[in-house]
Amino acid sequence: MDPFVGEKRVQNGAQKGCIMHPQLEPVKYPPYIPPKTRKSKPKDNGELEASFGRFWAAYPRRVAKVGAFKAWAKLKPDALLVERILKAVNEHKRSVSWLRDAGQYIPYPATWLNERRWEDEIIAPGQTLTPARRREEPWLAPVPPQREVRP
């Protein structure tokens, strides 16, 4: 007995249900979109490298230089921003958090740049929060020591 009983053969030999069957619609693919080309890096980045060199010399924790340069290139700082960043680095060098435990808590330079940490408020050694600031932001106020209760 013929295995194709009940199915009607079409002229091109395709069976019903086959993708070559003329009754089925062909799959419509979206038009081809070529991939985007990457922008070429500028050849003349001597000024960028020079300004990064100044930052690198001023920053106390010199680790992960490639990542730091990528963060610096992403910023594309102008002369005014470079001076502002260098001033902030020098102020942060004297801050309590960077002096604690021999500089253990100094962030990586790429992190410092990516998080725009030069915009942070700096508390110098011996400086405390003003009473008005403590009222506005109570979580910044120091916690008083608790007294020991003896039974």
Please, could you describe this protein's structure?
The chain is built from 6 helices and no strands. It is mainly alpha-helical. The chain has a domain at 46-122.
Features:
151 residues, mainly alpha
Q: What is this structure, in a nutshell?
A:
The protein has a domain at 46-122.
Poorly predicted segments: 4-10
The shape, in one word, is flat
Order of helices and strands: HHHHHH
Question: How far apart are the termini?
Answer: 101 Å
Portion in beta strands: under 5%
What share of residues is helical? Answer: 25-40%
Average pLDDT, rounded to a whole number, is: 75
Topology:
Elements lengths: L45 H13 L6 H11 L3 H15 L2 H4 L9 H6 L16 H6 L15
